[in-house]
User: Fold these one by one.
Assistant:
Number 1:
Amino acid sequence: MTKIFTDIGNWLIQSGALVTLAVFAWKYLKPVMLEKQKHAKTVQEKELLGLVNSLADNAVNSLVSNTAITGHDKFMAATKMVGTTLADKGFDVQRQTVEHAVQAAYEKSDLTPTVDPTAQPQTGVVVHNG
């Protein structure tokens, strides 16, 4: 039985069929592997953006009630908090991405006043009867 396997192995090597099989397998598997790698990278980036947005929401919410600092300083503090947390965990995220996430979190928070688009603007002197 061992002689049969040895003979088949020798034939594969001597005829070049083994090399042909390896080249064919590589040509078939390489695009599949690259596509899997690309998909994994996309999933990782999506998860990382979710983490950045979550950290930004938490940072902004922690600064909402702090009236001792201005809005710009709150923005800078939140950006620093998110960036530091990500760096401490070993994530490399561009500062611009962090700033966009913090800005989006501020727009969702209580710090940004909501404006009623149907309300008419008040001009001049407003008299309240009361």
Number 2:
Amino acid sequence: MHETAYEITTLTHQQPTPNPGMLPTEIPPGVQMVTLPGGIRTLAYTPQQAPPAPPVPVAQPIPAWAKTTALLTPTIGGGIAAAGVGLSYAAPGLIAMSEALWAAVALIAAAAIGVPILLRIGRSAAGGGAGRGATHITQNITASGMFGKATGTINHR
């Protein structure tokens, strides 16, 4: 037999390799397929990475219009409330005033209709029914120039 410089032995310790027929759904949770620096692919437990922390909210300054609105809101609400209270106290007076205004309207309407009727009745009574006609007055006015003195005559018939 020949003597050789090297000796062939069987390997008793092998790196675990996945079964070539293993499906990704068969791999248990927390275990992943990794490639080692020597090129051997194997299953290994991998540490879970913590999810990134949510971003910290930055405080935003309050806009000037929001501050102004917030300050005006109670003022406007108070004004509306005061107006409501004032109207509730003024309601009886407003009702009486509206009745007085309707009475004034009725008086004006009666005067507009009644005064001409009374004048006609007075003229016919003063004439005595003698057939006297109405009096006509004619006035003639004359003026010379734009700023001249005006003169006139009045004629009764």
Number 3:
Amino acid sequence: MTRLTGNALRVTVYIGENDTWHHKPLYSEIVHRAHAAGLAGASVFRGIEGFGASSLIHTSRLLSLSEDLPVAVVIVDTETRVREFLPQLDELITEGLVTLDRCEVIHYVGRDGTQGANRGKTGTKGKKSL
């Protein structure tokens, strides 16, 4: 079971959904490497509109010619573990933006079978404060 609370570091990688690494989606390669590195977790979010260094607006609206929508890969873990992972991002990211933000993790417990009963519920009576 993974537990992470307190001060942490969030790395966010902003890329295009068509960006690839060895013919595989770049966002998928980042997630798999984060997993292999033992990081607490990674999520990929697909944007509906945005622009970057090219100044071209990419949008999901009907009749748009763009299909290379923005993607954000978000990873949160301890500062040490995130910083140890940064060289892998250096290798993978040729175009895009990587940001680091200090954050505070209120509560994170990895699923272990006993956590499933309350997953997704908020305001549960008798819930202990952290």
Number 4:
Amino acid sequence: MANLYRPGHGCRFCATGGIDYDAPALVYVVLHRQLGAVKVGVTGAGLRYDRIHEHQRHGWDAYRSQLFDTGELAERTEQAVIAQLRARGLQPFLSATDMPQRGWTETFARGVLPEEEMWKLVQTVAE
């Protein structure tokens, strides 16, 4: 059985939905102009339920994404980016109320961290 991950719903080994750690996945950066936020995230490639599309339904614009061979590599990259940003003292910019589609813990203020800088960090970590 493939290892699956569903954020906020237990460990990746016992979750019943989300990305497949053995299948291709994307790391993406999206932005919300009205909220002044940028977000990094991960989604499975080719899933019927696409996180990028879900964010777009809530006013977010896709900026860029990168395909990884496995969900494990994609999530490792996303988590390394977030860890570097936390080490700089950056905390989540939005709240759960701002993001009914979830993912608020990976949001940052665009005024402090524009999407171009976030994407450069993704690229640096992915190398």
